[in-house]
Amino acid sequence: MYLDKASVANYWRDGYLLVENLFNEREVQAMLAEVEKGQRVSEKVYGRTDSSGRKARLAIWHELGDDIWAAASTNPRIGNAVRLLMGEEIAFFHGKVMLKESKTGGSWEWHQDYGYWYDQGFAFPHMLSAFVALDPATRENGCLQVLRGSHELGRLTHGKVGDQTGADATRINQIEAMFERVYCEMTPGSVLFFHCNLLHASGPNDSDYHRRAFIMCYNALANPQFTEVKTAEQRPCPVSADDLIERMADGLPV
Predict the structure, then answer these.
(1) pLDDT digits (tens, 9 = 90+) for 113-128
(2) Which of 1, 79, 108, 240 is the most exposed place for a label (fewest CB within 10 A)?
(3) Domain tally for the chain?
């Protein structure tokens, strides 16, 4: 799968690009099995409290490893799409599983990823996330919301909102009406690629259905990180076999 020039142009115009059914059903089920029974998620999971006091849970890691999450993060359908969108070589930054469970999952406040990645030492906003829906994502269960084109604002001031890092609320109130709010309803296996300065948020999950997702984040290989401890890999992101997730799920040699 390769993106055409129109798709790349739309990404730079809107700050995001939705690609339907990038992962197939077997691949999604393999990732869900790792969410429910895998060691990496169970060891890394923690909660972040939103402004209402509800918790949104996630698990995050900065190394690729050798599991299904690494297979997804190095899948050519993801990695090569990110290269085309960014127009340069990329490095893996981190992966995270978002756990917005039914009836309990909290909100994520309006923010830009570069709003806090900047404070982690990255010189340029040459960074991108690929959000994979593992369950149907709907308005009812707290799907991602974006402000179309808001990446053009540049980095906004961020601070603490509950346990989360959120964009300055006064500035959000001033600019929200300037941009179209898009509810990114997604089917399992679909992927939303979005710019690190795109403003995004999500509401609580008051429905009877989970809204779980896997997010893969990438940095431009040439984008320096001005910290002693580097959290982004300092090498080109590997490219794995296209069928690696299914082979791992089936217990076949890899």
Answers:
(1) 999 999 999 999 999 9
(2) 1
(3) 1
Terminal Cα-to-Cα distance of the chain (whole angstroms):
22
Question: What value, to the nearest 5°, has the Cα angle with vertex 95 and ends 207 and 41?
Answer: 65
Q: Which residue range forms the structural domain that includes residue 75?
A: 5-249
Q: What residues have CB less than 8 Å from 61, skipping those under 6 apart? A: 40, 44, 69, 94, 95, 96
164 pLDDT higher than 70: yes
The domain that contains 218 carries what CATH number?
Answer: 2.60.120.620
Evaluate whether 48 touches 163 at the Cβ level (below 8 Å): yes
Residue 254 lies in a domain: no
Q: Spell out the alpha helix ranges (H) of the chain.
A: 5-14, 25-37, 39-44, 68-73, 76-86, 113-117, 169-175, 244-249
CA distance 225 to 230: 7
Whole-angstrom CA distances from 181 to 14, 138, 177 are 11, 14, 9
23 within 8 A of 191, measured Cβ to Cβ: yes
Q: What percent of the chain has pLDDT over 70?
A: 100
pLDDT tens track for 27-39? 999 999 999 999 9
Please say whether the beta carbons of 216 and 113 come within 8 A: no
- Reference 195, options 138, 143, 156, 146; nearest CA is 146
Within-domain flag for 189: yes
